[in-house]
């Protein structure tokens, strides 16, 4: 363990890695602060850049971008009541009231500290759990992998704001879109209509940028520039009162714990982690009357949960090769481009990469703290960039970003088509997020389904005979029933 | 009345159509194989079928209680679409920088009223930004200008 950490330190503290870690957290925070742009957009935009770096450095930078963007999202939540990322929407509940009471400085400082606390907690969980899990994962069979992914898909659709039915429909659409291209098992091309460019399927970044970037620009371009509600913040009062320090400690610990747990489940991610942690804290806190009116615990809990989950989401990604979230899927894409296959063997085959990444998380979180306390003024000013500059710039950035991946104009046209699709779906209250999870997990699921069926000689009972997969499938079914039924009763 | 109700369901109908396309496409052109050796058609067929069934449930449920939907804002949609399309059309002919300028110009019509000065500043800023970030900074092998 200590040897591994030493190796990690040696990898993470080389000058280029430190530099790119810093650059990544900086750019991530920069993009995350901008309204409407979250970690997914940030990572997708900077993905082409990472192709030109060595694998360790590339991953360290992208990871920095990822949690930097998470943090940037909370700044917008607290100051403007506009969550930059869905996962930071919970922070709005108490962060914005605090800002309106002139305590924005305190809220931002506590956010930075809580994020750091949660992040470090998550890192410790990864360092302790991931190697164990990787060894355990070697025992898993195709049926178990299939069940894990099924649970991921169900979790993703249940979590979506538009209801379980619509969520599952989006997942199915994503799975179907994922089948476009050559079938790896038989070599038959599927649904390409004879178009050569579709033989390898549609790229994940192309789909993601179309569904989120282009359609977001179409939806929000006309919105008014948000007015900055807290101009009269007194920045002198950065420090919380003495008793608030103590009050924040237990919630930070609870938040980190809950966040770490939910981060490891594929398909759920930070939004679930922070909302469950907040809901729970509201029940147990001694200060619960103040929740929603600017309670310091209400900022600390979701932020620590959020960042702990952001870290532990790397566990299924690196040990099973199953992305916990859409952003993680992009990370897997980045790894694959560098010839590293994520999975149970990653830790033993690429120890420098794995442990270097873990230690770089630590530095990245430290950079976040350093960046945010003195630079808060810059981020605040960034929030005031008018919409009429922001959205056209975003459109240019995503167009050139998608083009630069493969120098393919076909990709740009495909992205536009997905932009239209995403826009129409949004109009009819179909949220595109589960679609993307289905698109990512679909092809892997098909692969494992076919392998499991081959191993069982065509007997579908294999999914219920193995304890692991039986339990996971059981949980998925219960989740589906629990979330689908009450809605219908309410409607009737 | 019926027509209006159907219009409110366009999103669900679109999904139904996509489900039918993939499901029927898999059924008629791809080999489903056997349970033991599933062919390339089996998985898309199942997923397409599930989507079709769920879309029907959603249709029936929403017919009783109309779902809320947002009317489209065609000006923003059109401007953003033209911007992306211009980027794809201008790049092969003139290079990335003119394409970025054209893209920014078209996209600026999505955001509502904008003075000429601001629009010019936006286009200039976008071109300069792309040049600085992608060509000077990242040294990506992109053709800045072509055919000049």
Walk me through what this model shows:
The complex is a heterodimer of chains A (492) and B (148). By secondary structure, chain A is mostly helical. Chain A has one domain (2-491). In chain A, 74% of the residues lie in helices and 1% in strands. In chain A, strands 1-2 form a two-stranded antiparallel ribbon. The longest helix of chain A is centred in the first third of the chain and has 34 residues, at 104-137. The N and C termini of chain A lie far apart (57 Å). In chain A, 60% of the residues are buried. Chain B has 2 domains: 2-64; 74-137, no CATH class. Chain B is 72% helix and 0% strand. The longest helix of chain B has 23 residues, at 42-64. The mean pLDDT of chain B is 87. Classes of the chains: A mainly alpha (492), B mainly alpha (148). The interface between A and B is large, with 64 and 76 residues.
Task: Quickly describe the structure.
Chain A has about 500 residues and is an all-alpha fold. Helices cover about 75% and strands about 0% of the residues of chain A. By secondary structure, chain B is an all-alpha fold.
């Amino acid at each position: 363990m200590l040897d591994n950490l030493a190796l990690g330190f040696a990898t993470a503290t080389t000058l280029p890695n430190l530099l790119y870690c810093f650059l990544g957290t900086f750019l991530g925070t920069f993009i995350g602060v901008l309204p409407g742009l979250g970690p997914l957009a940030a990572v997708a935009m900077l993905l082409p850049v990472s192709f030109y770096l060595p694998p360790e450095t590339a991953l360290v930078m992208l990871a920095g971008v990822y949690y930097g963007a998470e943090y940037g999202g909370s700044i917008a939540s607290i100051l403007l009541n506009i969550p930059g990322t869905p996962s930071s929407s919970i922070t709005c509940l108490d962060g914005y009231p605090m800002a309106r009471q002139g305590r924005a400085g305190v809220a931002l400082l506590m956010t930075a500290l809580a994020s750091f606390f949660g992040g470090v907690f998550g890192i410790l969980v990864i360092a302790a759990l991931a190697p164990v899990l990787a060894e355990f994962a070697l025992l898993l069979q195709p049926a178990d992998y299939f069940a894990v992914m099924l649970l991921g898909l169900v979790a993703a659709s249940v979590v979506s704001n538009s209801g379980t039915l619509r969520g599952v429909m989006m997942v199915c659409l994503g799975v179907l879109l994922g089948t476009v291209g050559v079938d790896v098992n038989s070599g038959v091309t599927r649904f390409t209509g004879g178009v050569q460019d579709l033989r390898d399927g549609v790229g994940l970044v192309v789909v993601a940028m179309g569904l989120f970037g282009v359609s977001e620009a179409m939806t929000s371009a006309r919105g008014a520039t948000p007015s900055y509600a807290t101009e009269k913040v007194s920045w002198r009062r950065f420090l919380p009162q003495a008793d608030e320090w103590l009050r924040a400690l237990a919630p930070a610990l609870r938040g980190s714990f809950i966040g770490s747990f939910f981060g490891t489940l594929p398909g759920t991610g930070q939004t679930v982690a922070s909302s469950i942690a907040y809901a729970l804290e509201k029940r147990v806190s001694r200060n619960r009357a103040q929740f929603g009116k600017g309670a310091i615990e209400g900022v600390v809990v979701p932020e620590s949960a959020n960042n702990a989950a952001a870290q532990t989401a790397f566990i299924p990604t690196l040990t099973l090769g199953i992305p916990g979230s859409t952003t993680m899927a992009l990370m897997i894409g980045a790894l694959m481009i560098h010839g590293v296959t994520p999975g149970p063997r990653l830790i033993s085959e690429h120890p420098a990469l794995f442990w270097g990444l873990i230690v770089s998380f630590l530095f990245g979180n430290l950079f976040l703290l350093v960046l945010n306390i003195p630079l808060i003024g810059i981020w605040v000013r960034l929030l005031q960039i008018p919409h009429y500059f922001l959205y056209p710039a975003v459109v240019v950035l995503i167009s050139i970003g998608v083009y630069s991946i493969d120098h393919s104009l076909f990709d740009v046209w495909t992205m536009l088509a997905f932009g239209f699709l995403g826009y129409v779906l949004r109009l009819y209250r179909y949220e595109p997020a589960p679609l993307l999870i289905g698109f990512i997990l679909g092809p892997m699921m098909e692969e494992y389904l076919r392998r499991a069926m081959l191993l069982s000689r065509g007997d579908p009972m294999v999914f219920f005979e193995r304890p692991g997969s039986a339990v996971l499938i059981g949980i998925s079914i219960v989740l589906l029933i629990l979330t689908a039924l009450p809605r219908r009763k309410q409607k009737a | 009345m019926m027509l209006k109700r159907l219009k409110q369901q366009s999103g669900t109908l679109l999904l139904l159509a996509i489900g039918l396309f993939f499901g029927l496409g898999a059924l008629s052109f791809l080999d489903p194989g056997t349970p033991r050796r599933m062919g390339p058609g089996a998985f898309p067929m199942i997923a397409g079928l599930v989507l079709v069934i769920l879309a029907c449930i959603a249709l029936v449920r929403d017919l009783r209680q109309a779902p809320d939907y947002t009317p489209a804002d065609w000006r923003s949609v059109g401007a953003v679409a033209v911007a992306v399309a211009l980027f794809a059309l201008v790049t092969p002919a003139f290079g990335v920088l003119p394409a970025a300028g054209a893209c920014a110009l078209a996209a600026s019509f999505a955001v509502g009223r904008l003075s000429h000065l601001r629009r010019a500043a936006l286009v200039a800023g976008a071109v300069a930004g792309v040049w600085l970030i992608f060509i000077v900074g990242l040294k990506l092998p992109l053709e800045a200008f072509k055919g000049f």
